[in-house]
Amino acid sequence: MTSSELNSAANLHFPDKTDWLQKLALSSLGLGLLLIFISGFQAKGEVNFMVTGIALALVALLTYFFRTYLKTQPGVRINGIWLRSSTSRGLIAWVTGVFLTGFYVVLYWWPGLMTGLIRSIDPLSYFIRGIEADRWFLYGTFYTLAVVIMGVRALFKYRHSTYHIIRTLSVMFFQLVLAYLIPYFLILFNQPEFYPSYFWPLKYDYLFPGTVDYLIKTPGALGVFFVFWTAVISLIGVPVLTYFFGKRWYCSWVCGCGGLAETAGDPYRHLSDKSRKAWQWEVAIIYPVLGFIILTTLLLWVNSVTGGGILGGLSNGFSQTYGFFIGSIFSGVIGVGFYPIMGSRVWCRFGCPMAAYLGILQKHFSRFRITTNGGQCISCGNCSNYCEMGIDVRWYAQQGQPIIRSSCVGCGMCATVCPRGVLNLENGPRQDRFQPTAFISSENVRILK
């Protein structure tokens, strides 16, 4: 069968149900994006075009989401995701991926090309921070808008699940308030810029001696509190919370990287590679990244204590190397730019040191697991297909085995798309973690029905 015949067959089974209001909303979105694009052509920016474009785009997206999801009954529908060009690595997906990747490349290495866009949001920057905008403020603003507006989409899409409603509201809150407003308000009041929702080793420099020294010497008590907060949460809070709730408390509820993946990246979650080779690459990359940042932190402290007499500039070289290859290229360019091609959790799965740290704790010390009821499984494959971390959930379900994987972020989507209620996210006694479902204690606390 030719490609044209396949497309014709696909259209017969999945006809275009876009109505006039949805088409009007998408047209308005295109106009809004055009106005945003035009605002960047002038060296001094064009505030009116930027404001109008953002407002028009937001209204258009809200209208489209409202119409798309509320004209159908509640429930997750994944029909046709492998037949759409935008979600099956087709032409639209590649164009989107090239655009996102190009945006990050220009942002990091040719920010002068974005001068017009940056100047267009100066009024907002002066209002929130008291200073003119820069490329990172532009990026933070667009990033936060993406999490919030696509979070609204997730609220519509998963409105039948209380768990996902609360989880989505959580990532929206932490990104908007703790990762956007609070850091910039701190600058407004002449305090150090600090992101309280990011911890070491993800925010790797927060425990570097230079950052610690800078924060401690900051006038007032806030700097000392920030150092205390980072150390306590990173070294004590993370293990304790992970013991009780698994890595999901952070990766799926708090982290900004996970927040973008769960909202803007949701249409691409099924693209994650489920092969054993991908799992081998995951193990081969993510743990060395964690080891690299631990080694870098230790070397910097040794250098600091010895006054640089032992290692000289070697430790700084480690830090700069990590910041360039991991902090910029991996987490930014690849981590987000490759959403439409490799799925929404490329960075979280293959490169994030925080995910590696949490994963070790989850697999060996946590009470968290996903239990399965193999007798009810019909092998539909929805759970594996929808797993953004590339876990073959169906295999565990068929065997009736609990899922205890270091890579699992506990998003709960596998349980949500299961038509038979085979999967449950649970926190139970540690001695029962690896037992088949039939032997799990009735004392377990089920937190996802």
From TrEMBL:
Any GO MF annotation of the entry: 4 iron, 4 sulfur cluster binding
GO cellular component labels: plasma membrane
Domain 4Fe-4S ferredoxin-type span(s) in chain numbering: 368-396, 400-428
Keywords of this entry: 4Fe-4S, Electron transport, Iron, Iron-sulfur, Membrane, Metal-binding, Transmembrane, Transmembrane helix, Transport
InterPro entries registered for this protein in UniProt: 4Fe4S_Fe-S-bd, 4Fe4S_Fe_S_CS, Electron_Trans/Redox
Transmembrane segments: 24-43, 49-70, 91-110, 136-156, 168-189, 221-245, 284-302, 322-341
Pfam families recorded: Fer4_5 (PF12801), Fer4_7 (PF12838)
Name of the protein in question: 4Fe-4S binding protein
